[in-house]
Amino acid sequence: MSIRLQSPTNHIGHLLRQFGTALVLMAVVCSTVYAQEEEVDRAQEAAEQLANPNSTIGFLTFPTDVKFYDGTLPDASSQTAFRFNFQPSLPYNLGPGVNLFARPLFPIIIQQPVVTEDGFENVGVALGDISIDVALGKSWSSGIVTMIGGFVSFPTATDDNLGTGRYLAGPEFVAGYVGGWGSVYVLIFHSWSISDNEEGTLSATGGQYFYTFNLGNAWQIQGQPVFSYNSKAPEGQQWSFPVGG
Fold first, then answer.
1. 203 has which bridge partners?
2. Given this model, what pLDDT does residue 18 score?
3. What does the angle CA 154 – CA 203 – CA 113 come to, to the nearest 5 degrees?
4. How many C-alpha atoms does 234 have within 13 Å on its Cβ side?
5. What pLDDT sits at residue 173?
6. Could you write out the three-class secondary structure of 157-173?
7. Beta-carbon-side half-sphere exposure of residue 147 (alpha carbons within 13 Å)
8. Which pLDDT score is estimated for 12?
């Protein structure tokens, strides 16, 4: 039988190696946690910037509209429409708190009922009227944000039932408030036809209302429904004001 004796120097060296390994593991864990916290902080900062309509961050949204109909025509209450929009926001910084924006909108009509002599027919997938708005934005120290610009719509609809058949242009205005909790603002535009067809001239009023509530850790509740006003519609039907998020 043999007995191996370990010198104190070897024992201390073994302990130091274990201690060093533990320090490395702790450093790796702390570095990972710190990196995750940094990532969450960056995401939260980006989310807060996206809640600001006058942010210098460019982004892409896909507003989606679902409409349910009702009325006195046969089968009117069973009709629905579905539209998918592709809308980038392209900012250009002009100075502290001042930005120039361009927002093209490309509407893709997935389903849209139209009235014919034989009743309702659903138009298949088609392109709607492409539009673009250009605006100059200003952020004030009070948290208020204002913008002024113009709106242009082009008769690009691939089906005559899905567009105006005219070029439209007019002014737009934006006003709102941005705070630590989020933001709320509204965009209003009015446009007139600058090219007419057999149906005559056209004027339209509409816009979007936007809201964002920051929940923390880059989570948000947000909505940007599109509303419109038609002065020639029957009484009680002039406004289309959807609720969404």
1. 192
2. 64
3. 65
4. 1
5. 94
6. CCCHHHCCCCCEEEEEE
7. 28
8. 60
CA angle 95, 97, 100 (to 5 degrees): 70
pLDDT for position 102: 95
- In angstroms, the CA 123 to CA 137 distance is 38
Q: How far apart are CA 188 and CA 238, in angstroms?
A: 16
Per-residue pLDDT averaged across 101-120, rounded? 89
| Coil/strand/helix, residue 146 | strand
pLDDT number for residue 236: 78
The number of residues making up the chain comes to 245
Whether 10 has a pLDDT exceeding 70, the answer reads: no
35-39, 44-48, 107-111 — most confident range: 107-111
Residue type, 24: V
In contact, 178 and 139? CB cutoff 8 Å: yes
Token pair, residue 60, equals 């892409």
First and final C-alpha spacing in the chain: 80
The predicted pLDDT at position 94 comes to 95
Residues contacting residue 39 through CB under 8 Å, at least 6 positions apart: none
Rounded to whole angstroms, the Cα distance separating 79 from 66 reads 11
Dist. CA 137–CA 56, nearest whole Å: 10
